[in-house]
Amino acid sequence: MRVSNRSLDKVRGTLALIDQIDNHRVIVRSRGVSGILQKAESKYVQSPHGALAS
Fold first, then answer.
1. CA-CA distance, 54 to 16, in Å (whole number)?
2. Each residue's pLDDT tens digit in the chain (54 positions)?
3. Sequence-separated contacts (24+) of 7-13 with Cβ below 8 Å
4. Positive or negative: CA dihedral 32, 10, 4, 24
5. Burial 25-46 (b: 16+ CB within 10 A, else e)
6. Could you tell me if 45 and 51 are in contact, meaning their C-beta atoms sit under 8 angstroms apart?
7. Residue spans per domain, the chain
């Protein structure tokens, strides 16, 4: 998700309020924050094989 750093706290608070998706109970967690999209992808996005992308 791409968010302005000024809105980060509001977005985190909003995500914490999500408790259901399609009538399934869920917990939404932030995996991390990065100032650069490419860095975030390499640190936080998993490859199809389950390993973190490098």
1. 28
2. 888 889 999 999 999 999 999 999 999 988 888 888 888 888 888 766 655 555
3. 8/33
4. positive
5. eeeeeeeeeeeeeeebeeeeee
6. no
7. 8-44
Q: Which pTM value belongs to this model? A: 0.60
Positive or negative: CA dihedral 1, 41, 27, 12: negative
Cβ of 19: how many Cβ atoms within 10 Å?
A: 10
Instruction: Return the HEC string of 1-54.
Output: CCCCCCCHHHHHHHHHCCCEECCEECCCCCCCCCCCHHHHHHHHCECCCCCECC
Half-sphere exposure of 50 (CA within 13 A, CB side): 0
